[in-house]
Design a protein that fits this description.
Elements (H helix, E strand, L loop, with lengths): L6 H8 L5 H10 L4 H18 L2 H8 L18 H25 L1 H7 L10 H26 L2 H8 L18 H6 L1 H10 L4 H18 L18 H11 L13 H5 L4 H21 L15
Helix pairs in contact: 3-5, 3-11, 7-10, 7-11
Bound molecules: zinc ion (ZN) (2 copies).
Length: about 300
């Protein structure tokens, strides 16, 4: 809740006129408590989990022309009923775990000092903070995820997330309730280290989930803007982790590729990419009149 009654009061407290965005924020948030503003995350998460994967559902079920060639595992095609079941399971966890977690976690947001007042953060400030949040979450998530691939962690908890060996958008938040709670820690760590404005916090929660849906989309679209982000893993990268399944010791990172590179857990993925590239080149050579037998695939892993 803002400590000003009017726009004029806010402007005189800031010592300048409010920007357009600040005026919007004032009109929207002035009479709402910080708790209510924080709980907006429940609505955002519900909309993101429900709406963002929908184009992917249409692409998969209707085989939208042209998109099939971007499927990472083209032989796997889930019927609509399976996707609906996944969404229902996600919503059940949303009602039982995600929503209640938001309801009770407000004191932690108060303690770390997420602010709701004016001035609003600059775009540059938001960008820097979001970058920190993504990096901190990625690093922490890497080690928790890697730990969950030990025998106990996998069988008791992480196995649920791996039920989809060919991921779909709805399956991004599909996980055991304990995993949902555990992975809330890396998400919270960045904002705890570099607390910002509520708008930045909302953006973080939303962007992280949209990123997870893209990563689990099952499609490797060449035009996605995330292709321009350095060290970004993307759909193909995480798809490989699901494809290998419980035995996977590769591609643990959730967002970027640097952790797997540094700790040597991307070797299987890089080896497979190398082999596939070689096979493709040879197949092109055959089509262009060359002979497949003229070259051999080096099956030795590096
Ligand atoms: Zn895993
Ligand atoms: Zn996954």
């Amino acid at each position: 809740m803002l400590p000003y009654q009017t726009l004029e009061e806010a402007a005189s407290a800031l010592g300048r006129n409010l920007t357009f965005a600040e005026t919007l924020w004032f009109n929207y948030s002035a009479s709402k408590s910080d708790y209510v503003l924080y709980l907006h995350n429940i609505l955002f998460l519900f909309v993101i989990f429900s709406v963002v994967p929908l184009p992917l559902v249409f692409a998969e079920v209707l085989s939208w022309a042209g998109l099939d060639r971007y499927k990472i595992q083209p032989k796997v095609r889930l019927p609509f009923s399976d996707m609906l079941k996944c969404y229902k399971d996600v919503m059940r966890m949303f009602i039982l775990i995600v929503g209640p977690l938001q309801l009770v976690s407000y004191p932690s947001v108060q303690i770390i000092g997420i602010r709701t007042g004016l001035p609003l953060p600059s775009g540059w400030e938001m960008l820097c903070q979001l970058l920190v949040y993504f990096l901190v979450e990625d690093y922490t998530n890497y080690w928790i995820h890697r730990f969950l691939h030990n025998k106990w962690g996998y069988e008791k908890i992480h196995r649920v997330h791996h039920e989809y060996t060919a991921p779909i958008g709805f399956a991004a938040p599909y996980a055991h309730w304990a995993e949902i709670l555990i992975l809330g820690i890396p998400s919270f760590l960045g904002p705890a280290m570099v607390p910002g404005h509520m708008v930045t916090f909302w953006s973080w929660i939303a962007l992280r989930q949209v990123e997870a849906i893209e990563t689990h989309s099952g499609y490797d679209f060449p035009w996605t803007p995330t292709k321009y982000i350095p060290f970004y893993g993307g759909a193909e990268y995480h798809d490989y982790h699901h494809y290998v399944g419980g035995q996977s010791q590769s591609n643990f990172a959730s967002v970027f590729t640097y952790c797997d590179f540094i700790y040597g857990t991307d070797k299987g993925f890089r080896y497979q990419k190398k082999i596939l590239k070689k096979l493709k080149e040879e197949s092109n050579a055959v089509q262009n009149g060359g002979s497949y037998n003229n070259s051999t695939v080096d099956l030795k892993s590096d």
